[in-house]
Design a protein that fits this description.
Blueprint (H helix, E strand, L loop, with lengths): L9 H7 L4 H10 L22 E7 L13 H5 L4 E5 L9 E5 L7 E4 L4 E4 L3 H4 L5 E8 L5 H10 L9 H9 L9 E4 L23 E3 L20 H21 L4 H23 L7 H7 L7 H15 L4 E6 L17 H21 L6 E6 L3 E2 L11 E2 L3 E6 L7 E3 L1 E2 L6 E3 L2 E2 H11 L9 E3 L2 E3 L15
Parallel strand pairs: 1-9, 1-10, 6-14, 6-17, 7-8, 7-9
Antiparallel strand pairs: 2-3, 4-5, 6-13, 10-13, 11-12, 15-16, 18-19
Helix pairs in contact: 1-2, 7-8, 10-11
Length: 471
């Protein structure tokens, strides 16, 4: 074959020159990641699996743990006193100063058989505490929203890395061949933006599918899923014609698996498009179900629809769903540097929908193998900023988990006596990622992907599984 022959591709050259040794390198680069069959086909976990899927409820901006779930009597007793503090933010890093302690703005009471303290901000979640595991000893990387939000989603503060949902899609595939394995509801364009649900160097099929946008009241609709200009039968004919052309081209070059990958991706996109309208049609739900989410009530309607949609997704086999309580402002919703009373508005908007989701999952038997994770990118300081605000606090904060093989009705770890720093059974964000992957039957040290000369993983070179959290 002449080098001038237009059909002489680089792939053919590697196979036919130097005894074909070049093709061995090509095969090595493709490895086990070449597309065969459905790239999102369900995969068998390599270790015991407690959970099959995850719903992450992201409270953007950093809710104050000392005003919500981390009860600190010493903080209340020392309200107004000055303490010594060493700065962690830009311009204050390493510098000592005096800060005024500020007690919680809401009263705490104990709830459930476990006796968990919850502030009056969350009366509905308070009714579910016997099903929850509160982690009071979280700490993370980054002190600003952008880096910390990226770290929460991807395990990196400033590098382009795959989202946690993409890793789970890559490791487990989808339980439904007609839907993506990873979907994100109402993501924000800022503070990490698309990188929070991006696939980075993983195959693009594992990128999160975004529904709606932050702050939009129509968050349960998928853009461009309908075509007003063509009927379903016309769209089907066009799709069949396109796939016929692809198949003919693939037949001419059977050794080129890139064409096969293209055909498979079009097939998957078509199946998703056909199932999406039914998925997002909340009118099929009973009025009683809508009521427990707060749908129809002014304060809770928007986020209630998002949480109900998340349940419909996991019910249909989506592996990882991110529900974002966020907006597009320069200060994310829970970011109250000078107006902590604003926390009451955000609690009102999310408390009933989150509690409703937990109740609904449990009543349907889905909570047993669905892990729910609630939290923000960090917490807030126990001292005042401005008059009645709080600054960012990545050194100690609270999240809670439920279902998916997690112990229920427990509190794990602790911050110091005023809620400033995690001091007991500390859990880093890498540790939380490793633990959630383990619950899904994935070993965080073995779930890797070769890129740029080395194997990468969600937890980088850190992370440990917190087995104490498992039932």
């Amino acid at each position: 074959m002449s080098l001038k022959d237009k059909s002489f591709s680089r792939r053919q050259m590697l196979k036919s020159t130097a005894c074909g040794f070049g093709s061995l390198a090509l095969a090595g680069m493709q490895g086990a990641h070449a597309v065969t069959g459905n790239p999102l086909a369900a995969k068998t976990s390599l270790i015991p699996q407690r959970a099959k899927r995850v719903i992450f409820i992201f409270m953007a901006g950093g809710p104050s743990h000392v005003d919500t779930f981390d009860y600190k009597p010493e903080l209340i007793a020392n309200d107004g006193k000055d303490i010594d503090f060493v700065g962690v933010r830009t311009g204050t890093f390493g510098k000592p100063s005096k800060r005024r302690l500020m007690k919680p703005l809401w009263d705490f009471k104990q709830y459930g058989e476990c006796g968990q303290h919850v502030s009056s901000l969350f009366p509905h979640i308070a009714g579910q505490v016997d099903d929850l595991a509160f982690i009071h000893s979280m700490h993370t990387a980054g002190v600003a929203h952008g880096p910390s939000t990226l770290f929460l989603h991807t395990g990196a503060t400033n590098l382009v890395r795959p989202s946690m949902g993409s890793w789970i899609s890559y490791g487990l595939g989808s339980e439904n061949e007609n839907l993506p394995a990873f979907m994100t509801i109402s993501p924000s364009a800022g503070k990490g933006g698309p990188r929070n649900y991006g696939n980075a160097f993983l195959p693009s099929i594992h990128q999160g599918t975004a529904i709606g946008r932050a702050g939009s009241a129509s968050a349960v609709k998928i853009r461009n899923v309908d075509n007003a200009m063509l009927s379903d039968s016309q769209r089907r004919r066009r799709f069949d014609f396109l796939q016929g052309l692809n198949a003919e081209q693939a037949g001419r070059a059977p050794e080129d698996d890139r064409l096969d990958a293209t055909i498979k991706s079009y097939e998957l996109a078509w199946r998703m498009q056909m199932e999406a309208p039914e998925l997002t049609d909340l009118s099929m739900e009973s009025e009683a179900t809508k009521k427990i989410y707060g749908i129809g009530e002014k304060k809770t309607d928007d986020f209630g629809k998002q949480c109900l949609l998340a349940r419909r997704m996991v019910e249909r086999g989506v592996r990882y769903v991110s529900v974002n309580y966020s907006d597009e402002s320069s200060n994310p919703r829970w970011d109250q540097h000078s107006n902590m009373p604003k926390h009451a508005d955000h609690a009102k908007a999310t408390d009933k929908p989150v509690a409703g989701l937990l109740r609904d999952l449990k009543s349907r038997g889905l909570l047993e193998d669905t892990l729910v994770w609630w939290g923000g990118e960090f917490g807030r300081t126990p001292f005042a900023q401005s008059k009645d605000g709080r600054d960012h606090n990545p050194r100690g904060f609270t999240v809670f988990l439920a279902g998916g093989g997690i112990k229920s009705g427990i509190s794990y770890g602790a911050t110091d006596e005023i809620g400033s720093v995690a001091v007991e059974n500390r859990i880093h964000m890498h540790d939380l990622h490793a633990t959630i992957l383990n619950a899904l039957g994935l070993d965080h040290e073995k779930l890797t992907y070769p890129y740029a000369g080395r194997n990468f993983r969600l937890t980088d070179v850190a992370g440990r599984v917190v087995h104490d959290l498992f039932a």
